[in-house]
Design goal:
mainly alpha; 2 helices; elongated
Length: 54
């Protein structure tokens, strides 16, 4: 097997284990990631709109 494929499978297994063993922490982590992505997207939108307004 390819080392990259094995590393991917191990990563997926760890994520599944984390979700099953600590669902509340997993939900909090996902919420934090979504919040960070939303904030980042809003910042990019503000930057681009400022460029085109000026």
């Amino acid at each position: 097997m390819n080392a990259k494929k094995i590393a991917g499978l191990v990563g997926v297994a760890l994520v599944i284990f984390f979700v099953i063993s600590q669902p509340a922490n997993s939900a909090g982590l996902v919420t934090s990631i979504v919040h960070w992505l939303r904030t980042s997207a809003e910042s990019v939108i503000a930057f681009v709109s400022t460029i085109f307004k000026g």
